[in-house]
């Protein structure tokens, strides 16, 4: 077996510069390798190093571009590496990923490599667009200032015709949803073509606005091959659309950047497939890092989990992710790096997956008011149907804001009572 062995990227005296990109990893060395050695290899393989010394290396490269492992915590297998900004092309996230999230993940010396956190310097942040709307912009857009936003996902995920889809959306808005979105796997299948679905559903959206007097948005899933995605976004913009949705991880960072460059509409980021990277406790990358890059590129709403619903994700991690996408800055702790967002707009956290009115108080207590609370099954599964289901969600938000226990509020509100009877 080819054995890599070097120690040259460790420098525990190094004080990171303001311009460095800093990453925190949890590293499990493979048998026969030490923790310290693999930390050094991680820095090397994701930058200027390779498995042996090379004749083409020169001192200038070594001096200006070598990352430094400046923090080692062998007990918790955690290290922090400072990468000089010059290693990367600004405004090119795939390039950053190919470096830091690249070859090293497949090397024999690594048994597990978990990219836990990133601290992005101002210059890199500013080379991306960031959210166009952000939380204050979206609140203004929707004219909702004092409560969480309420959304739904048209269900079943796939299978409805465009007409049926528009009808379910319409009934969701009538019942009280601010937001109606497509599901992540609905694109332009034969049974429900993109253009027809869009035209019918946006018409229903305008009608619901007239009837309810509230602003309503339709998050249509524009996920497709990049040229086609651009065409779909343009079609939405040219025909009175008010929001687009993208599956950011299946699309890839490149197409997400393209979308951000090409649309004036808010972007909803669905994270379908994130768990392929984020689920293992020892290998992959954490949602924290995905969330930071999403804010940097410029999405306006991002799924981050609920802790109380059907998806995995520890509460403390979800809370930290929410802070990371919604706050102007976060502080350094033993578990996380700090991040100053230098004015990059905040992203609305989306709590979704197994949500129903019965868990709204917990979600609001845990995630606050700046959250989009989304329920698919928890609305369309209501015993009296979609309108009542949406109404029950709004009532749950209302009762929580009024600090009235759900069960008490339900005594005077049938839709809420029916929802609690089914799901609590
Ligand atoms: C929710 C959802 C979302 C998940 C994704 C679904 O539907 O549409 O895709 O929320 O998970 O299909 O599960 P339900 P996450 O309300 O019917 O569960 O938000 O954690 O990324
Ligand atoms: Mg879904």
The quaternary organization reads as single chain
Number of strand segments: 15
| Count of DSSP-assigned helices | 18
Poorly predicted regions are none
Q: What is the typical, i.e. mean, pLDDT?
A: 96
State which percent range the strand residues make up: 15-25%
What is the gyration radius calculated from CA atoms?
Answer: 23 Å
Give the strand order, joined by hyphens, for the main sheet. Answer: 5-6-7-8-9-11-14-15
Rough outline? elongated
**Cα-to-Cα separation, first versus last residue:** 57 Å
Name the ligand types.
Answer: 2-carboxyarabinitol-1,5-diphosphate, magnesium ion
Query: What structural category do the secondary elements indicate?
Result: alpha/beta
Summarize the main sheet. 8 strands, parallel, barrel
Helix content: 40-55%
């Amino acid at each position: 077996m080819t054995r890599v062995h070097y120690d040259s990227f460790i420098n525990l005296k190094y004080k990171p510069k303001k311009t460095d990109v800093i990453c925190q990893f949890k590293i499990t060395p493979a048998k026969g390798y030490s923790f310290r050695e693999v930390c050094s290899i991680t820095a090397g393989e994701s930058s200027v190093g390779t498995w042996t010394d090379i004749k083409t290396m020169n001192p200038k490269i070594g001096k200006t571009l070598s990352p430094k492992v400046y923090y080692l915590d062998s007990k918790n297998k955690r290290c922090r590496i400072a990468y000089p900004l010059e290693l990367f092309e600004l405004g090119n996230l795939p390039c950053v990923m190919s470096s830091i999230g690249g070859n090293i993940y497949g090397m024999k010396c690594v048994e597990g490599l978990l990219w836990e956190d990133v601290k992005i310097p101002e210059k890199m942040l500013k080379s991306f667009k960031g959210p166009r709307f952000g939380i204050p912009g979206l609140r203004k857009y929707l004219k909702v200032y004092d409560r969480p936003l309420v959304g739904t996902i048209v269900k079943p995920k796939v299978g409805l015709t465009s007409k049926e889809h528009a009808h379910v959306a319409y009934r969701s808005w009538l019942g009280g949803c601010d937001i109606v979105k497509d599901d992540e796997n609905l694109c332009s299948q034969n049974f429900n073509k993109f253009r027809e679905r869009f035209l019918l559903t946006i018409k229903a959206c305008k009608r619901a606005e007239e009837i309810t007097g509230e602003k309503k948005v339709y998050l249509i899933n524009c996920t497709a091959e990049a040229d086609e995605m651009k065409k779909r976004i343009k079609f939405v913009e040219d025909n009175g659309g008010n929001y687009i949705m993208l599956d950011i991880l299946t699309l890839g960072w490149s197409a997400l950047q393209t979308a951000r460059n090409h649309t004036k509409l808010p972007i909803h980021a669905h994270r379908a497939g994130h768990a392929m990277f984020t689920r293992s406790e020892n290998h992959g990358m954490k949602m924290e890092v995905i969330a930071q890059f999403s804010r940097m590129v410029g999405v306006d709403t991002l799924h981050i989990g609920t802790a109380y619903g059907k998806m995995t994700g520890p509460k403390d991690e979800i809370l930290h992710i929410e802070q990371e996408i919604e706050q102007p800055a976060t502080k350094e702790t033993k578990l996380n790096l700090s991040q100053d967002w230098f004015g990059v707009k905040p992203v609305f956290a989306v709590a979704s997956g197994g949500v129903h009115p019965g868990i709204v108080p917990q979600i609001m207590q845990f995630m606050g008011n700046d959250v989009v609370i989304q329920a698919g099954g928890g609305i369309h599964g209501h015993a009296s149907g979609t309108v009542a289901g949406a109404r029950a969600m709004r009532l749950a938000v209302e009762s929580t804001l009024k600090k009235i226990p759900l069960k008490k509020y339900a005594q005077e509100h049938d839709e809420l009572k029916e929802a609690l009877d089914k799901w609590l």
